[in-house]
Amino acid sequence: MTEHPSLSGIRAARIDRRTLALGAVASAAAVAGGVVAVNAQDATPAAETPAFTLPEGVEAVVLASGLNNPRFVKVVDDWIFFTEAGVGGEDALFATPVAGQEDTGDPVTKRGYSGTLKSIGPDATEYTIVDDFISYTFGAVEVVGASGLGFDGNGSAYVIVGAPGPYIGQIERTGEEAAVYKVDLATGEKSVIADIGAYEIANNPDPAAIDSNPYGGTYAGGLVYVADAGGNAIYTVDAETGEIAVFAVTGGLAAPFLPEAGNALRGGAKEIDSVPSTVTEGPNGNFFVPFITGGPFPPGMAPVYEYAPDGTKTDFATGLTMTSDIAFSSDGTAYVCIMSSNLLAGGAGQIVRIGADGTKTVVLDGLMAPNGIAFDNEDNLFVTHKANGFPGEGELVRFSGVTAVEGTPFTLPETQPPASPEAATPAATEAPTEEASPIASPVADLPTEVSLELEDIKYSKTEITIPADTDVIVNLTNKGALPHDFTIDELNISSGTIPSGGMATVKINAPKGTYTYYCTQPGHRTAGMFGTLKVV
Predict the structure, then answer these.
(1) What angle do CA 430, 425, 100 make, to 5 degrees?
(2) d(CA 216, CA 214)
């Protein structure tokens, strides 16, 4: 490991307001234009040499590769700083069940100390400043850990470290997760200055479920601004005292496509979590907050809010999708990073320019899980690439010529979430006709064993009919990449979490009635993973 040198020049450096950070999950596609080879720098000779299809005039160079879930990136003078969330670890943690939640006996996360803060100097050498931030697995592919970044211009960095969201109040905490750290850039020494997770557990500013995953943020005027993606809130942390204050509660976003029962995780309201991803100070001194949104991550539903220093909010941009970061070029033009243009359909990541009149133009497309973006003084754009779900394959890529790209209009896919459970459920089987045998019994013909596949993010059957007061076996197979489960609240039935490729069996013996089965994994029910059980 190359140790970081003394950065005496950073102590007097002013942080450029155009730099920023983000976070992610997405997939891949390609863009129109010429194919440009991307060569890894000498600092990472073992890296593969990928190729992007880029617009004419744009060049791309991989500055760092082999990264583990890279998150945000910022530029200070000639130095580039970025974080890695890590890969979790081997310390298995078990949740303390809350009311109505079954103890499956399975770990909900694995913890380790694999998160980092790194930098790349003017000579293209990669340095490790901190290599032991706490890191948690979260679901089948996501990892949370070191993420947001800010700098005070006096030799200190502020690193925002995440946590496993809804489990924040159910696991044995160390106080190192869901926290803001102060890091001495010359020595690498770090210390926690604020425990956002403890604040969420005690106060829960967005009065929904307890949930905390601090993600992105920035430093400005003695305060660290923190976007808690899990808690749907923006905080300020006094860099000297560590005092935490609520800057804004972003709450939920209206989701009229949800069923009449609404979102149980938001008190039955027809809304999904807003999921703020970061805070970036703009050239006008206001703060800009993009949103990833909660499941099912509907295309066109993500806004970017602009906050004055006093907290007054206006809509800066609307109609976007899964926006994880925002950065400003030298002329003050905003660019946003889109993790995926349509996550459930495998849409690619994008970089979108926001014109002064609100016009949205795609300048880079076909990215794989982009996460954070930042411009330098020459308008080179730095992007953390393959930032989630690609352990050991993450990259920091520099794109030049992006600001001169004419681009293509930003458009939305036609696919939309189902308007209601009924819209997602096929019509019930018609009643037997009079020609049917008078001796036949519909109930007698019903199965006592059912097979159901769990996919991303749906069940293979959205309606199941079984006989009443009869033991019925349901065989469950998880065909998806994500963990899933099968739960019926009214019957107190839960399969427990089933990992990718796993199998489970539940037995149902129920009176006549209609019940709902669904997946309890965060965001899956609102993404459409539910169905109807008819007992006749």
Answers:
(1) 120
(2) 7
Cβ-Cβ contacts under 8 Å for 248 (sequence gap 6 or more): 233, 234, 289, 305, 307, 311, 313
CA R_g for the chain: 24
**Cα 188 to Cα 7: distance, rounded to the nearest angstrom:** 11
Q: Is 343 helix (H, G, I), strand (E, B) or coil?
A: helix
Buried b / exposed e across 117-144, counting CB within 10 Å, b at 16+? Answer: bbbbbeeeebbebbbebbbbbbbbbbbb
What does the pLDDT read at residue 219?
Answer: 98
Q: Pick from 518, 482, 473: which is nearest to 500 by CA?
A: 482
Whether the ω angle into residue 296 lies within 30 degrees of 0, i.e. cis, is yes
Place of tokens 């399975």: 106
At which residue do the structure tokens 């006996």 appear?
A: 105
Which residue is associated with the tokens 């920091």?
396
Q: Which of 95, 76, 55 is nearest to 7 (CA)?
A: 76
State which amino acid sits at residue 288.
F
What is the CA 508 to chain-centroid distance, rounded? 35
For the chain, the structural domain boundaries read 8-409, 421-535
The neighbour count for residue 416, using CB atoms within 10 Å, is 13
Query: What pTM, to 2 d.p., does this model score?
Result: 0.75
Determine the pLDDT at residue 417. Answer: 46
Closest CA to 320 of 284, 290, 344, 363: 290
Mean pLDDT by 10 residues, the chain (536 residues): 36 22 28 24 32 84 97 96 97 75 74 98 95 90 94 97 94 96 97 98 94 98 98 98 98 91 86 96 98 92 98 97 98 97 89 97 96 97 94 96 96 60 36 41 75 90 93 92 87 88 92 91 76 93
- Given 2.60.40.10, 3.30.230.10, 2.40.30.110, 2.60.40.420, which CATH number is that of 421-535? 2.60.40.420
Task: Determine the longest span between alpha carbons in the chain, in angstroms.
Answer: 91
Closest to 210 (Cα-Cα) out of 115, 92, 135, 99: 99
pLDDT score, position 350: 96
Architecture (CATH level 2) of domain 8-409: 6 Propeller (2.120)
